[in-house]
Each structure stands twice: as structure tokens, then as C-alpha cells.
Request: fold
Amino acid sequence: MKSGSRNEKLNTWVKEVADLCRPDSITWCDGSKAEYGRMMALMLERGMAVPLKKRPNSFLFRTDPSDVARVEDRTYISTRSQEEAGPTNNWVHPDELKKTMRGLYQGCMKGRTMYVIPFSMGPIGSPIAKIGVELTDSPYVVCNMHIMTRVSAKVLDVLGEKGEFIPCLHSIGAPLAPGQKDALWPCAPIEKKYISHFPEENLIWSYGSGYGGNALLGKKCLALRIASNMARHEGWMAEHMLILRLTSPEGKRYHIAAAFPSACGKTNLAMMQPSIKGWKCECIGDDIAWMKVRGDNRLHAINPEAGFFGVAPGTSYGTNPMAMDTLKKDVIFTNCALTDDGDVWWEGMTDDSPAHAIDWKGRDWTPASKDDAAHANARFTAPASQCPIICPDWENPEGVAIDIFIFGGRRSSVVPLVTEAYSWDHGVFMGATAASETTSANIGAVGNLRRDPFAMKPFCGYHMGDYFTHWFTMGDTLGAKAPKIFYVNWFRKSPEGRFLWPGFSDNSRMLKWMCQRVDGKIGAKETPIGLMPKEGDLDLSGLDISSGNMKALMNVDLKEWKAEVPDIEKHFALFGSRLPERLKKQLEEFRKRLG
Ligand code: OXD
Ligand code: MN
Reply:
């Protein structure tokens, strides 16, 4: 593509960054297949990419062992006052953070090419879409951005001379001296990684990591952290939610948006094949929803992304056949194992493990090896359009009108399979108190229970107390047209540590109950924690599950729930004077119901 654009602000910024980072050359990207091919050829030549014999146009990458997940500890919301970033975000004053990062950026692209990637989150030109431009020195990022966002010269046409864009600066932080041999996965050490957001200027600066949400800046950085802040000012919502369409046997459509923390099954639910007869699921998105109130006063959602950056381990024809079919060609795999016949493999992909493979660190692996063959946060990057059940409306700029919100997380105990909120305010309380056991999607301990409000703890770009208030404001705007809110937990375990619920396609049973509740076709019983299905109302036809397991899954133990209260109080205390009165009232009512 030719260099430069008609947009003065963009041209000036590109020049300023080039003067600071000193790349050897600058390439403006056009998002074409030819460009993708050139980038891959370059990475093949450098030995970074491994072509897969079994999957056309698909490649495996292995990262540096230190660069395998998002780095929440090194992620900053940098506002002039710390109060604005709130208690759930890391904060450094913008002057100080920029000074530190300018020091790191100084000459950081020497020996490399800087790519200028114009991209659109949401269909190009749609009134809901936002334009970003990522500057990066990583060809891996260019290829992933091709899949995950809409990269095109057309974006620059839409931008025109005066259009607004969100500048996203990224460097892997590994300059090359003349003649220096490049690493297979160049990156900076952990203490030099910074994933920084300046929401007061709608600006993103990322340094030192080449992986996932740290580096593909359209995803978590733009579409969640910066967009959530824009959304509260502009009266819309940017949420960590999958979007799906469920169609009943009578042909009635329901649109569901569900917020679960990272690596808690959003991709699996978004592509579910219902086990209940006659119901159909279509996928609209698996990670992010942007939602606006439209002329019908309903909340309409779009998926701002164009691809899936999904967790590979555990994905199989048993758990998510539609994802497996999405991955047949044109995929980038990262940190999966390589089989001897030139395919990828990961734990949980097949019943039998391969007798031999190369693990994600490039070492020989056999089933006797003590380490896993694939990293627990190994990922696939695949075009959404390849999903066999992608919804025909997935790129409709009008979005789809949401009927149901679901919150949830991984809880091996306490939380039952499904609960309905008594009201919007009670639903906000459920979202605000959501808790989940941590996963490998972030660098850090796995399996620790933490409050992750609305699955947005790592992604809310402003004070979380104000974010709760925004949810109440949106509820007031929507009034009777607000989606109904539910809470689910697919992960409850027996005392012996076995999952009680089969999950996956059987999760459709709870979705059916929710749809029946939306239509007012079915009752519910009142419990202290919310409304729950009455005996016999959940469709369990054809499911082999013991009544003991069902009882355990639906059990509400008042002692256990009372024990949650002090932790909720501690969690709420974090937000100080910004905790909405309406949440305090909900907590009071919850306490009263518990008796
Ligand atoms: C993701 C995440 O990659 O949440 O979607 O970590
Ligand atoms: Mn996510």
C-alpha cells in the first residue's frame, strides 16, 4: 500500500513515533491476502512460524516462555488523578508513565520495520464502529490483527482528512543491533512490559510483549478499556460478553449476551450445539459486546471483532465441534504442541494423546512427560466468518436486540446452576459481586477465588464504582425493555472434586428456561439468592444425571451464602464513596433474605 494518509493527525503521529522508535523502515498495511502472505513468508524465513501440513494456510508459533498471557500486574489505567482509575486498576500519573515509556521506546524499533495498521472495530463505516491505528514492529501482530479486526485501506478512506482514530502504539521492545541474530520470539523481560491506557486522551501505549491482549491492541485495550470509558460518557456499553442467537422450535429468536471471566467457556457457549430437540444456536461473538439503545428503546449489540482468539486446551469435537470446524484452515496457533504428522495438538483435544509430539517450548514430548504438551493458555486465532454457525446477522451494523444477560464464573462450590435476578438492580448486584477462580489467561496464580465484577476487573478503563452507576443508569434508560438478568455456574464440583454438571451442549437447558421466563411461560421459586427453576421445570429430557447430582447443583446452602457476605462487604468497601447507594440497598435486602 502507498505510504501516508490524507489525515494530518495520523501522518504527524506516525512521524513522531518513527522519530522516537527509529525503525529501519515503515510499511503501511492494507489488510490484503497478499500482505498476509508476505508477513507469513517473512516469519517462515526467520523460523518463527511452523507451517502445518494438516491445515491449509495455518501456522504454529511458539512464544518466549515469559510471554504467554495477559499481564494484569503490568497493565495501567493512567488518568491525571488516581481516583479516576479506581481501586481495581494499576495507576501511574501520565507524565511519569509517559516519561518511563518514552525512555523504553527510544530506538526500540532499530533493525525492524514499523507497520502502520489502520483497523475498524465493527463493520467499516458503521455508525457503531470505531477506527484505530496500531503502529507495531511485530509481523505476528500484523497477521493476527488481519484476522481479529477489519484491516483495510478503506479504513483510511472513512477516516478522511479530519476523522478521529484511536492511536495504539505497540513495540515488542527488542531492537536489533546491526548483524544481531533475532530471537524466535523477541520480547522484553516482564519488568519492562507495560500495557498502558490514557483514557483522557483515548490513547494506548504497549511495550515489551508480543502476545494476545497485550499486543493485539484492538481487543482488550481498545474495545474494552478505552471503549468502556467512552461508552459511559456517550451512554452505551462495552462489555466482556459473548453474543449468541437462540432459536426455539417455533422459530422465535432470543439474543443472549453473557459475561464470564477469561477462559471460563465463553467461546464454548457462543458456539454451542443445543442438546435439547429443535433449538438452534448461532454465534455472533465470543468475547466482546458493544451495545447501544436504538430507536425501539431496546439494547442492540454488535461484536466489534472479526475473529476468535480462543483458548485451545479443552477444545474438542466433544466440547466445541463448531470451534473445531472453524479451525480447519487459515488459522494461527500459538503455544500448541506439534504432532509428528504436521498438525497441532493440545490437552483435551482427543481422547488419546499422540505417542510423540514437540511441546510448546519446542522440546520432545510423550505422554510420560511431566509437563503439558500445550501451554494452558495456548490459543487459536481464526476468522469468525469460518464458524459454521456464524449468525447471518453477525455483521449487521444495527446489531441484535438483547433479551437476556447472563453473568457467571468458575465456582467449585456455593453457587447453583442457575438463578434469575428479582429486578435490574438485583441483577446489577449479581454482576457486581460475581466471583470466579482465576485461570491461565493472566500471568499469575491459577484457581484463586477473586471478585471479578461483570467479568470486567481486568478490562474496565475507569473507576469501577462509576461503572456500577453506569449499569444502573442504563437500566433506568431501558426501563421495561431492559434484558432480564441471570447468573449461572457450570463448574460446581462434588466433594470428590468431580464436575456435577456435564456442561457444553447441555447448558442449552438453562438457556431454554431463561427464554421461557422471558416469555412469562413458566414460573420460578423464590430463594434468598434469586429466582430458581421449580422442580421439573428445567428440561432434562434425554440427560442421564442422578437426582442426587441435580439436588447438589441446585442447592442453596444458607450457611455458605451467609459466609459470602463479609467478603462482599470487603469488596464493596473498596469503592468508597463511589459505591452506588442502590448496591448498598441490594446488599441490605440480600442480607435480610438470608435471615
Ligand atoms: C481473552 C481474555 O483473550 O479474556 O479474551 O484473556
Ligand atoms: Mn476475553
Summary: The chain has a mean pLDDT of 97.
